[in-house]
Amino acid sequence: MRKTTKLRLVIAASLVLIGCIIFWGAMSMLKWDFTKLSTSKYETNSYEINEGFSAISIDTNTADIVFVPSETGAVTCYEQKNVKHSVTVKDGTLVIEVVDARKWYEYIGINLASPKITVYIPQGEYGALSVKSRTGDVEIPEDFHFTSIDISERTGDVTNYASASEGVRIKTTTGKICVEDISAGLLDLSVSTGDVTVSGVTCGGDVSVTVDTGKAYLTDITCKSVTSRGNTGDISLRNVIATERFSVERDTGDVNFESCDAAEIFVKTDTGDVEGSLLSEKVFVVSTDTGKKEVPDTITGGRCEITTDTGDIRISIQRS
Predict the structure, then answer these.
(1) N or C: which end of the chain has fewer CB within 10 A?
(2) What is the value of pTM for the model shown?
(3) What is the spatial distance between Cα 243 and Cα 74, in angstroms, rounded to a whole number?
């Protein structure tokens, strides 16, 4: 190796070492709080709610959204100084909207902080809840009951413990969806990349779960029908009872039943096993190209049709 090459390598290594030392010293002074490196300025603003309302509409770009039960109504926003939110009541609807006043050059910089909207309202019953957000998590506690819940996210997790008499619709592109211990007229959940967890749900209508890439876990659910579509990922159903039908499709992924039942069951998967236990006898119509088939030889009950290209089919009847 030439002397000039060695010298360059030594200089490069020394510069990297010096940079690491400077970075370590700077972060130590900031107590390793990376948000302090942000070039955007943040502030906390509080907005009182002095008018009555029944419905709630939130439209924001990048903010976590949290609902908190409170004796009085107010909205607190941790937000950028030039990306604030307006809080108004219009025609009986509490409207929270983002007001982005940034110039084009203000989009350039480091932004490591997380904006947050905290909605303080009395616990109880409300009308429609609509939430639209690009990036940020949404959390709704069990203290509230809505006529309907409609949440649309691009990137963020959604956790909902609130019931809705007409229905709950949640859609996110990248993130997790969790719905627990609620009653709803219908349940419609959709995610492109992420898991879906549903438990303790009483649904008067249908439960629909769509997952492109991710797993779905359905536990302790009673409803009219269950429909699930997915490309890649397993689905697990435990103590799920539907008065009409199960309809489950997967391109790649296993389908597992445990103590489940429906009047009719239809399952189709290209690559994956279909296994588990049902609570009542069925007339089984099963088909697999390369896999084992083990199903009860029963001739009463509703139709149970299971098709898989590559995978085993193993179903049993759980006797009481």
Answers:
(1) C
(2) 0.84
(3) 43
